[in-house]
Design goal:
Helix content: 25-40%
Number of helices: 9
CATH superfamily of the largest domain: SPOUT methyltransferase, trefoil knot domain
Low-confidence stretches: 1-11
Number of strands: 9
Largest sheet: 7 strands, parallel
Strand order of the largest sheet: 5-4-3-8-6-9-7
Number of domains: 2
Strand content: 15-25%
Length: about 250
């Protein structure tokens, strides 16, 4: 087994009560070494994409059982610059179809909630702690029409299982409801289509606004490091070789 040590920790004061938090620090020398395996074009692309990434909006998939639907949403999140996708697995295991996702899963931060039967509650609590309002994407008496949605608040858009939509718990705990206007005989959209319409609308408005929607410098640096590693074939062996050389010097 190859052990890679590319991060170290700094322990710093968090508050006056002597509580601490750990901060990840990137090994700049290792990063510089790994960048040598990438073309300038690749590095420029990473930085360009990072400049358009956001955590102002995030996506939550609750018990999606069809792999092609979940995969299409992941691909949509990548296309519109939404960095994080949260998957809740109470009844069904989330699966990604490489054919549908087209590799987008490599660049998205995916967080899974599958430890017990209260995964929905755990996910929603985590998102609230991160400052998100919970928006259930479902027709409801109090639903906001998509074009009227207030983009100023950090929002987590929850999409539910294909047949029944979001769970009762999501409806009970939602801070708001969102629906796409429809004028035809059909009253519902495929989840992947609904996600694409919503994310295209809200991210377009977001980029035209004065909201500070971009990732922090620290977030960009950590993602850049992660993407660099994922782009290099046999990255683990290369890093092990690097650390061995460091030890021998």
């Amino acid at each position: 087994m190859i052990t890679i040590q590319f991060l170290f920790f700094l322990k710093i004061d968090e508050d006056k009560n002597n509580n601490f938090k750990f901060v990840f620090m990137i090994d700049a020398q290792l990063l510089n070494y790994l960048e040598g395996f990438l073309t300038d074009k690749r590095k420029h692309l990473f930085k360009k994409v990072l400049d358009n990434r956001t955590n102002h909006f995030t996506v939550v998939l609750e018990d999606i059982y069809q792999a092609h639907n979940a995969s299409a949403v992941v691909r949509t999140a990548d296309i519109f610059g939404v960095q994080e996708v949260h998957t809740i697995e109470n009844k069904y295991t989330n699966r990604v179809s490489r054919h549908v996702a087209k590799g987008s899963q490599k660049w998205i931060t995916s967080k899974r909630y599958n430890t017990d039967g209260d995964n929905t509650k755990t996910c929603l609590n985590h998102l609230r702690n991160q400052g998100y309002q919970i928006i259930a994407t479902t027709p409801h008496n109090d639903s906001c029409l998509l074009h009227e949605f207030d983009i100023t608040k950090k929002s987590a858009f929850v999409f539910g299982v294909e047949a029944n939509g979001v769970s009762d718990l999501v409806k009970e705990q939602a801070d708001g409801f969102l629906k796409i206007p429809m004028v035809g005989f059909t009253e519902s959209l495929n989840i992947s289509v609904a996600a694409a319409i919503i994310l295209q609308e809200v991210t377009t408005k977001l980029r035209k606004s004065n909201i500070a929607w971009q990732l922090s410098t620290k977030e960009k640096e950590e993602l850049y490091f992660d993407w660099v590693q994922k782009s290099i074939k046999n990255s683990a062996k290369i890093q092990a070789h690097y650390h061995q050389e460091i030890k021998e010097k």
